[in-house]
Amino acid sequence: MVLKAEERGCFIERLEKIRESKVLVYFSYTPLDDSILVPLYKQLKEIGHTQKIDLVLHSYGGAVDTPYKVVMLIREFCEEFAVIVPFVAKSAASMLVLGADEVVMGPISELGPIDPLVKHPLYNEVLVPVQAVWHCFDFLQRSIINSPNPEVATVIANPMLAKLDPWLIGDYEKTIKASRQYAETLLSRYMFKDAPEKVSVVTHALTEGYYSHGYPIGRREAKELGISVTEAQGELWDIIWNLYLGYEKLFKEKESECD
């Protein structure tokens, strides 16, 4: 199903009526970064200050700083902010949810661990999850400590460490700490402003509690974590899902035209 622009507009208008909100859509397969900010600001200026904004979000994540900037910008233009996740809002995109008052999820919707992307130390065009680098260091440390052979550091660790710039290692560590700081700040200001005791628990779970970058946190598990989840059902979910399918098909057709 390919939705024409006017058809997508009709779905968005219906979604706005049901949700009593203004709806924005961010749908992308490229990493989330600051390039979103100027187009977002232009859209928000056109809308003007309003009571409630819903962000329909499809993203596999990106830079550590961008989600915080997006939340702060949207919050300048509304009193209430919600994120609608048709399918995937993973990694850094999940951080956007922490700055919302609620997240709207369906049966297939997924959040994920907060694990921002950083540049590969050797191949700058390749982005890797920062937690993967941290787990590499953890593996090296355990290998050295637990090995009865004192030469293990020379055999295993030194060749790997020689490929990493110390400044780069520090930057990776800073990114991990920044993701925790942003998560704590967003939760304490917004989603958990009335339940501060949940902030550290949920921050720890999302930044350190999952070993897989792609771990799927569905709506039930998100609720168990304490995240404010609205379950989309009936006509609401049908509209959200049809919007997702329409944008997905649109992106695939654009890709095929470029091939």
Automatic annotation (TrEMBL):
Could you give one GO CC term from the UniProt record? membrane
Name any one GO molecular function: peptidase activity
Keyword list (alphabetical) reads: Hydrolase, Protease
Name the InterPro entries on file: ClpP/crotonase-like_dom_sf, Pept_S49_ser-pept_pro
Does this entry carry the keyword Protease? Answer: yes
Listed Pfam families: SDH_protease
What's a GO biological-process term for it? Answer: proteolysis
- Keyword match Secreted: no
Name of the protein in its database record: ClpP class periplasmic serine protease
> Can you name the source organism?
Desulfosporosinus orientis (strain ATCC 19365 / DSM 765 / NCIMB 8382 / VKM B-1628 / Singapore I)
